[in-house]
Amino acid sequence: MKHDAAAKPDADRSTRRWLTHPVLSLLLAVVWLLLQQSLAPAQILTAVVLGLIVPRLVHGFLGPATRPRGLLFTLRFMAIVLWDIVVSNLTVARIVLDPSSRPQPAWVPVRLELRHPLGITLLATIITTTPGTVSCVVDEDGGAILVHALDCADPAAMAAQIKQRYEQPLRRIFGETSGETTA
Predict the structure, then answer these.
(1) Which pTM does this prediction carry?
(2) Distance of CA 131 to the CA centre of its chain
(3) 171 exposed, middle or buried (CB, 10 Å; 0-12, 13-18, 19+)?
(4) Among 46, 72, 83, 159, which residue has the least CB neighbours within 10 Å?
């Protein structure tokens, strides 16, 4: 019984820390400053306060902090996602503006190997953020995401592309695989 009491303070230490999610704290502060377009002392102070308080308030909803692996790989992956968003915007604009286009909408089931909850959330967010696709159902227990695509002639090829381009790098970032991934 005494051993359990001694272990409890260590387990509670992370819930009492102010920087429970340091990456989120930094992101909130940077986004605030970007939205304000100012480095005035009042804005910096507000950014620091938001970065400290908001993650602390929502800590119970976020769960334990996750540390991504491979900073350079993660930055490269972010660049690929941003590039895909730009290209998809142009593709959707062409489909919408071209009166002769005949898009082929499709439901695309994507079976997941990814098991990390944050990784699955990021994958669904990337899919939804990329114009022309929307993550409609995320079934963590069944290990699948159902994606609606605005224009998809080959659902199996699109599922394979999502897995290769987004899921495999996320598996590496969240430590589910140590092999080299081509993204």
Answers:
(1) 0.70
(2) 16
(3) buried
(4) 72
Dump pLDDT digits (tens) for 99-111: 999 999 999 999 9
Q: Residue 182: which residues within 8 A CB-CB, separation 6 or more?
A: 164, 168
Q: How far is CA 172 from the centre of its chain?
A: 14
Please choose, from the candidates 145, 151, 136, 140, the residue with its C-alpha nearest in 3D space to the C-alpha of residue 166.
145
Backbone angles phi, psi at 123, to 5 degrees: -60, -45
The sign one gets for the Cα dihedral 84, 90, 94, 96 is positive
Token pair for 83: 């590039």
| Nearest residue to 123 (alpha-carbon basis) of 105, 108, 138 | 138
Bridge partners of residue 106, in order along the sequence: 149
Please give the residue that has the higher pLDDT: either 23 or 110.
110
**Residue 20 in contact with residue 57, Cβ under 8 Å?**
no
Q: At what angle do helices 41-57 and 22-36 cross, to 10 degrees?
A: 140
